[in-house]
Amino acid sequence: MKHTADPVQGSSEHGMTAKQHPKTIRCPACGQATSLKENPFRPFCSRGCKGIDLIRWTSESYKIESETDHGEEDEQTET
What we know:
- By secondary structure, this protein is of the alpha+beta class.
- Helix content is 30%, strand content 8%.
- It is built from two helices and two strands.
């Protein structure tokens, strides 16, 4: 009998389930693999990467554009 991967439980090929392997994601600041479980800085890998992200937001390196942002810029450049 051939075992297939169960998308909910993980691979049953080696008798391991998703519960036995902590879910890992990539840190949005540095790209390092980090665990979601038992990580006080999630989704970041460390306090340093969490701080870097905060600095990027406060220095306006990240911007969320909206339709009103474009309209306000057009009004300011016309006067």
